[in-house]
3-isopropylmalate dehydrogenase (Dysgonomonas gadei ATCC BAA-286), 356 residues
Amino acid sequence: MKLNIAVLPGDGIGPEIIGQALRVTEAICEKFGHELSYEYGVVGATAIDQVGNPYPDGTHELCMSSDAVLFGAIGDPKYDNNPSAKVRPEQGLLAMRKKLGLYANIRPVSTFPSLIHKSPLRADLVDGADFMCIRELTGGLYFGRPQGRSEDGDTAYDTCVYTREEVERILHLSYKYARMRRKKVTVVDKANVLCTSRLWRQVAQEIEKQYPDVETEYMFVDNAAMQIIQWPKRFDVLVTENLFGDILTDEASVITGSLGMLPSASIGIHTSVFEPIHGSYPQAAGKNIANPLATILSAALMFEYAFDLHEEGALIRQAVAASMDAGVVTEDIASKDGVKHSTSEVGDWIVDYVKK
Ligand code: IPM
Ligand code: MN
């Protein structure tokens, strides 16, 4: 098969973790006889510095003409405490999601046996947890207008907007995935307070009738935040709106032991994007210490979701699990007396494993 991918390293540790994911992708393609071609694009703070736009047209054209996008991370502290910055790196990520029509962000949460001791939760609670968060990605507070400040600057507002169509398509997608899993969907909202949530719930109550083989439950987001920690194994597919999904998936990552472990697939109308859920970790940039596994696991999702190549994805996952069993891991998941390996050493080990 011919794989034509766009590579967007972004900011901070982005280039280092993407570098390793790309090497693993190359090794897999070599092993399975696929032809890989890739091209780099700029995005985020790097793109602002170079061309003044966090998602330049050239990068968008590259994404549109590729079969998949492998994405690193975005964000630079020089923008974080500067409220007067007119353009921010994160706008690049949001523009990319919107322009590519990536309305669904799939974040699988599952545990690795050799990492369970790293979870702050009790081992018996997290061992075997395996669920999929489906976060709506192009609506809600992130994109609703009006958004802004009053003239005197003392009042600020964001608007949460959802249309029936947006809610319907993400729910249908969630049921589709639930049917491939344990056939349970948890719809997370705040319907006791928010009007948009009441629309979500109404639409979900209509749609659930089309999937009588799937169990549907409704949960308020505050309760869901608690239950994810208290009883993660009760979830199969959890679907929710943009901001709730952002928050709940950072929370869910602690189940696995590290934010550096969770991959994601953003899918929708145009080219799909595969990216770790963590940020650009600027304190570690250039130090070769960041955990590349979430990005390598995102490459596994790319093989599966963008190319329907399941053996390839499974081998990457197996290699990642084996690297952890062998103790070849970065400092965030190393055991107390274990050796801390560098980003590239972890990549080396996984590439060797894949080639074997
Ligand atoms: C994520 C990130 C982004 C988001 C930021 C960087 C804009 O936190 O992908 O989860 O909030 O969506
Ligand atoms: Mn986030």
